[in-house]
Amino acid sequence: MNKTDFFNVGAAVMLALAVTPAAAMAMDSKAAVDAAKAQGVVGEQADGFLGFVKPSSDPAIKAAVDDINAGRAALYREAAAKNGVTAAAAGASAYTTVVQSRIKAGEFFKPAGGSWTQK
Question: Which of 51, 64, 97, 118 could make an S-S bridge to 32, C-beta 3.0–4.6 Å?
Fold first, then answer.
């Protein structure tokens, strides 16, 4: 995938996230995940999905992460189909062009091939 394709996929995902946030996540799931991010339990991964920085026994947090990841997966599949790339490429592009810039100080992220890092 060339740089233009990478940008187009990221732009498509960013537009979908901005226009239809309800399609990507329910507000209660977002609130639960935001709290878990602030506590260092959940972080953003380079594949465009949320992951657990440390294990959580809270079923509500797991359900919220699953809900948001399912919404993101649907967006990535849609962006991939529109741009002729794989869903994995769309997710990675979304991380680079959208998600990475939204990680707040103190939150965790996991770069491709790396380990969890606190911003």
Answer: 64
Global pTM reads 0.78
Domain that includes residue 100, residue range: 3-118
If one counts the domains in the chain, the total is: 1
User: Sign of the CA dihedral 55, 86, 27, 23?
Assistant: negative
List Cβ neighbours of 27 (8 Å cut-off, separation of 6 or more): none
Could you give the CA distance from residue 33 to residue 31 in angstroms, rounded to a whole number?
A: 5
Adjacency order of strands within the sheet including 108-110 = 50-52, 42-45, 108-110, 117-118
**Amino acid sitting at position 103:** I
